[in-house]
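Lab manual, section 2.4: Encoding a predicted structure.

Procedure: take the sequence of the chain (57 residues), apply the prediction step described in section 2.3, and record the output as structure tokens. A sample record is shown.
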Amino acid sequence: MDVAKMDSITEKGLIIVEARLRDRSKVERAIAIQDGLREKSKKWEGAKEIRKWRDLR
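Recorded output:
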């Protein structure tokens, strides 16, 4: 196998690895945001809030 072909294969492999790492970091960031929102909304009750908005209509 020639060097140019090896370089091409290596480059494609790196692109795949980088894409997976980028996806993983997006997932980790989304989880952190959800955890933060969950902490802020501990005493919030969705059913009461929905009822309030429905009654206003």
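Check your result against the sample. The radius of gyration is 24 Å.
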